[in-house]
Structure formats: C-alpha cells, structure tokens
Amino acid sequence: MRFKVIHTTILCITMLASFxxxxxxxxxxxxxxxxxxxxxxxALNVLFKGDSNPMKxxxxxxxxxxxxxxxxxxxxGWSAISSLWDEQATLKLGGKVIAENIYVAxxxxxxxxxxxxxxxxxxDGKEQKVSLRTTTTFxxxxxxxxxxxxxxxxxxxxx
Length: 159
Fold this sequence. Notes:
The chain is an alpha+beta fold. The protein has helices at residues 2-20, 23-47, 53-58, 78-91; strands at residues 66-68, 75-76, 96-106, 110-123, 126-141, 144-152. The chain has one domain: Nuclear Transport Factor 2, Chain: A (Roll), CATH 3.10.450.50. Strands 2-1-6-5-4-3 form a six-stranded mixed sheet, with helices on one face. A hairpin with a 6-residue loop joins strand 1 and strand 2. The longest helix is centred in the first third of the chain and has 25 residues, at 23-47. The N and C termini lie far apart (67 Å).
C-alpha cells in the first residue's frame, strides 16, 4: 500500500511538472520562433517603406492581441492593431532594424521572445538610431506561429 501511495505521488508530481517544462518544445520550436522574429523584422522593414500587408499576415487576427509600441501606444484587439499598422506605414520612416540577442521560451502552443531591436529610421531627413528592448509573444494557430503581443520601449522621436 505504501508503495502505491509513493508511486502515485511521484507520478502526479511528474505529470504536474510536465505542464511547466518547456524543454520538450524548445528544441524544434525555438528555431521556428527565432525565424518568426526575423520574419517580423523583415515585415517591419517593409512597413518602413509604406506597406503594412506583410506585417498584418504575421499577426493573429484574434481579439486577445496586444500592442505596446515605440510611440507609447497601448492597443488591444486585431481591429485596433491592424489600423495601427496602416497608420505606421503612412509614416514611411525608412531605415532598417534587426533583432539581436534573441532569447526564446516556448511551450507547444505559446512562446515568448525577448531581444534587442537595433537599427535606424529616417525622420525629417536625419538618421535616428533605434535601440529597443523588445518582447514578442506568439501563439501557434493552425500550425503557424502568430504574433499575439508586441511590447517595446518608446522612441522619443515617435512619441
């Protein structure tokens, strides 16, 4: 009897721990999330030229999405975020940013990427440096990693 209680307790602890263990997802999904971060920045650089469509394809179109960007805004829901990307595209900021020092924590259906965004934009004909701490959250939807949250520091020239 005592063996069964100990065995059952160990089994329950192991099962509970598996819910919090992300190592089983980290191997394959970490590379996929890092690729998704690169695609996000490719789309962002296209946005700087005036086209918001590539960025909009990377996002979940659900109402639980959030965006807190370098303009100091806080938007929730796909409708508001979609409009925001259109608005930002009209700024035609130019320049280029990339993600550096990407750190990913992933489970089978959710992932968070923390990284630095570095590069520059062109504002009033002058180069403005970009150096932001960034967090992007992804959810797996129909086997694709979609952005459900993006949060950066603010940029003084955009506030």
